[in-house]
Description:
Layout: H1 2-29, H2 34-55, E1 57-62, E2 72-76, E3 94-99, H3 108-112, E4 117-119, H4 125-140, E5 144-147, H5 165-173, E6 177-182, E7 198-204, H6 214-231
Parallel strand pairs: 1-7, 2-5, 2-6, 3-4, 3-5
Antiparallel strand pairs: 6-7
Amino acid sequence: MILLRSIFFVIWFYGAMTFWGLLYMPAVLMGHDRYIWLSMRGWGKATIWGLRRICNVRINIEGSEHLPTGPALIASKHQAALDTVLPAQFVSEPVFVVKRELIDTPIFGFYMKRGMIPVDRDAHAKALKDMLRAARAAIAKGRQIVIYPEGTRQEFDAAPDYKPGIAAMYRDLNLPVTPIALNTGLCWPPNGILRKPGTVTLKILPAIPAGLSREDFMRELESRIESECQALLPAQLRRSGGP
């Protein structure tokens, strides 16, 4: 039954992406950027509805009092594709740092090319420079950047693997960083189509102030996110010894 529900949900998920993507595509082509986020929010609401009705997955979003206002940098744990859908529900105009390959995908890629920050991970130093340049432009427009410090989806019980890109952005933009912890991998694994029933939580944490050294910042970011992610897991699934 879980497999059958999961298959129905995958059809619903991509069908909703197609519907909301095509609906606002003409407006985006005409240069009306706000429709990028209207499309993302519509897709996100449909995804949340489908998870609840088809897969019996409930979603809790906690810590909204910690949401930044104005230009900001948000660093989120990444366990499932769901993590890239939910931020548009509580951030007005999120600019995502995404891997370069995604901009070549149908419909989704169309939106990723417009206003997001694609990163070619094989370009190394050039990729970092391009990312920082695009980040400055986004911040100048008053946008809020969402970055996944580990660069890719991880199993909920995987050891942390934080990349230096977030530290470079933190230093270059001189902004506080708002961490996000979550446990979405419990119901939506990073790979495969199974969607397991249950409740998942995304928790917005207090911001890390600007101005820390690289080492102190990375240590604080990893500690806050990983400790909260562990706290969101059932006791029997928590790693021993902390992050």
